[in-house]
Write a structure and sequence with these properties.
The complex is a heterodimer. By secondary structure, chain A is α+β, with helices and mostly antiparallel strands. Chain A is about 15% helix and about 35% strand. Chain A has an eight-stranded mixed β-barrel with strand order 1-2-3-4-7-8-6-5. Classes of the chains: A alpha+beta, B mainly alpha. Chain B: Keywords: Membrane, Signal, Transmembrane, Transmembrane helix.
Amino acid sequence: MTHLSRRAFVTAALASLLVSCAGHGGGASATRPGGTHVSARSSADPANAPSTLGRSVPARLRIPEIGVDTPVMRLGLAQDGSVQVPPITAHDRAGWYQHSPTPGQTGPSVILGHVTVGAYGDGVFRHLDRLRRGDGITVRLENGGSAEFTVTSVRTVAKADFPTKAVYGDVDRPELRLITCGGPRTGDGYLDNVIVFAALSTTHH
Amino acid sequence: MRRTVLSATAAACVAVLASTVPAFAHGASASATPRPSAPAATPAPSATTAPSARPSAPAGDEPSAVPTREPSRAATPVPSVAPSEGRGQVGVVPSGAPDTGVTTGSTGSGSDGMLIGGGTAGALAVGGAAVFLVRRRRATGA
């Protein structure tokens, strides 16, 4: 009998251990990979420039390297003049800044997404800073066409020094900017922005 | 013998039930966390699509620089200057840096504390139940 009581005890102890593990594992952790400044910008390669696309609003964004496959909503300006950001929801989406060119047009097309969405956990651009030069990005357009981009650089910059000109300034080819937050956290936000610069590589009409 | 086996089974059941404690702790922390911002869900895509922003002009030179009616989340603490209305490829250049990350409730120590506390409480409950069952069985001489 005593032997069996010990067995009961062991069973209970194992169950307790499982409970403890479940408690720790169930949380919405968001440990951040280290490293801020990722890679340098690359030079343009206008020699083999793909054909540009006509204006068509982006409908979907795919980034296989980091598991992103999201619908794209439209974003405008907030009342204070800053760019709007997608709403904080459980399954947040990316958003295209509608005053920028559409993907595939000449100019910097700007798409934004959250890195984290508060209590909902990771945002759609949670791992944007893991992209590296050469990674592919596909934007499907509302007219059925698609534009494929290749990452040229990934930068992490302080919000106080946001490179407005580099992001929104004119360029001589179709480019893409993916923007999210990153770097150290402060209060309920972040101190930095992660910006992915990409250039058009292929188009499908 | 049989009672001992039953005791072990009961202890295992208590463990399974107790596992809901940390789950509840997580859920409670998530729901108790103040939502980042009330108007966050309001800027629906259609709301921002002002008719003037979709002209037939092909090169993104929207004539209207009027900010949309729907406010977004509070923008970055970066000093904000008025958006510039250029004739460049980007029709209206926003001011400041985009605020594309909300950390509230995602990784706060309070949330972790709740999880750890919940897990510990569950473990203690299971352990206590096991001790109680075994002692009672011994007392009854089974």
